[in-house]
């Protein structure tokens, strides 16, 4: 089957079929006729021919820090929901939270002639800025506010502050914090700043031994919770930078005989699926991850169509999920 065959069966011109395949303007009547023939025949256009004609690969590179993450999965679902409507496909690259791998993948995707790239960013180094500042294709960054680039991010500091305020309003004074590397500005730095701001506003002292730095895993949350309990036997609560870390902290607390929330309060960020099946369910922050993926993909499409605004920065809010782990 070729375009001529489709045109003959649908009773339209070859130009009409071409416009249909390239998302051009077409009357609804002709669109329905062509769609019916394509569905009945199982016709698939030649990718190579389209590339030669349009100078586009119809591929979008998506660079992810990790695969095993509810938040990342939601972001990818949001991106896919936009791309499938526009005829684009994704090339996924997972960096395992390695800045060096991230840079290598960005260069690889660029050399593969993808039409645009979405970077789900964590650590953003000077090497990243140097590479991306000279990028020759559309780019959108998700998860970090990076000046000079199109980006979609969340109010992590505000979320950290409100979560801590909730703990304080429930009478907690000695509140511990398990974060991640501060180089990850959104998750590692901004959420911690929110916690510190709320504690300072209520004149509650925070010492170095009240905070710990974990990696993105339940096992690390378990380990760091144990270290903090040993250093702070009078602690009343803990806030964790992710729900995964919070799950590990909860296991540690229970093994040490604490009842949650009667003896100890616990909270996290992310509102992942696991946060509602633990006992007790984890008080957490819901971020609009799927929506951020949709917005980033739409922003990228606008750039590729020449309609995007220079360095648009879009900030999403959050929703506090007040559940049983904080009393």
Description:
The chain has about 325 residues and is of the alpha/beta class. Helix content is about 45%, strand content about 15%. It contains 12 helices and 12 strands. The chain has a 6-stranded parallel beta sheet with strand order 2-1-3-4-5-11, with helices on both faces. Helix 7 (about 125-135) links the parallel strand 3 and strand 4. The model has no long low-confidence stretch (mean pLDDT about 90).
Report mean pLDDT, rounded to a whole number.
91
Gross morphology is elongated
How are the strands of the biggest sheet laid out side by side? 2-1-3-4-5-11
Question: What string, H for helix and E for strand, traces the elements in order?
Answer: HHHHEHEHEHEEHEHEHEHEEHEE
Q: What structural category characterises the helix and strand content?
A: alpha/beta
Share of residues in strands = 15-25%
Radius of gyration: 24 Å
Proportion of residues in helical segments = 40-55%
Count every beta strand, where a strand is a DSSP E run of 2 or more residues: 12
Low-pLDDT segments, ≥5 res: none
- Quaternary organisation: single chain
Largest sheet: 6 strands, parallel
Keyword list:
327 residues; alpha/beta; 16% strand; elongated
Compact description:
This protein has 327 residues and is of the alpha/beta class. The protein is built from 12 helices and 12 strands.
């Amino acid at each position: 089957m070729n375009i001529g065959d489709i045109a003959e069966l649908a009773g339209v011109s070859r130009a009409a079929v071409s416009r249909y395949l390239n998302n051009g303007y077409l009357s609804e009547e002709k669109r329905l006729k062509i769609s019916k023939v394509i569905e009945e025949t199982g016709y698939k256009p030649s990718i190579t021919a389209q590339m030669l004609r349009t100078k586009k690969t119809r591929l979008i590179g998506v660079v992810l820090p990790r695969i095993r993450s509810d938040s990342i999965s939601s972001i990818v679902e949001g991106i896919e929901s936009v791309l499938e409507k526009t005829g684009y496909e994704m090339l996924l690259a997972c960096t395992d939270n390695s800045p060096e791998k991230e840079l290598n993948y960005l260069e690889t995707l660029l050399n593969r002639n993808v039409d645009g790239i979405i970077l789900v960013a964590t650590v953003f180094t000077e090497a990243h800025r140097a590479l991306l500042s000279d990028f020759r294709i559309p780019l959108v960054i998700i998860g970090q506010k990076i000046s000079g680039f199109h980006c979609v991010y969340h109010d992590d500091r505000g979320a950290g502050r409100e979560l801590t305020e909730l703990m304080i309003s429930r009478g907690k004074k000695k509140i511990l914090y398990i974060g991640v590397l501060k180089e990850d500005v959104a998750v590692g730095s901004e959420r911690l700043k929110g916690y510190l701001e709320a504690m300072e506003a209520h004149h509650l002292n925070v010492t170095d031994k009240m905070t710990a730095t974990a990696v993105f895993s339940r096992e690390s949350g378990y380990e760091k919770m144990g270290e903090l309990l040993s250093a702070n036997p009078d602690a009343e609560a803990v806030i964790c930078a992710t729900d995964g870390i919070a799950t590990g902290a909860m296991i540690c607390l229970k093994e040490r005989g604490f009842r949650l929330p009667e003896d100890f309060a616990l909270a996290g960020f992310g509102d992942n699926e696991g946060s509602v099946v633990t006992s007790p369910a984890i008080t957490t922050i819901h971020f609009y991850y799927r929506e951020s993926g949709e917005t980033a993909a739409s922003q990228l499409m606008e750039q590729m169509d020449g309609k995007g605004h220079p360095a648009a920065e879009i900030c999403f809010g959050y929703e506090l999920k007040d559940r049983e782990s904080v009393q």
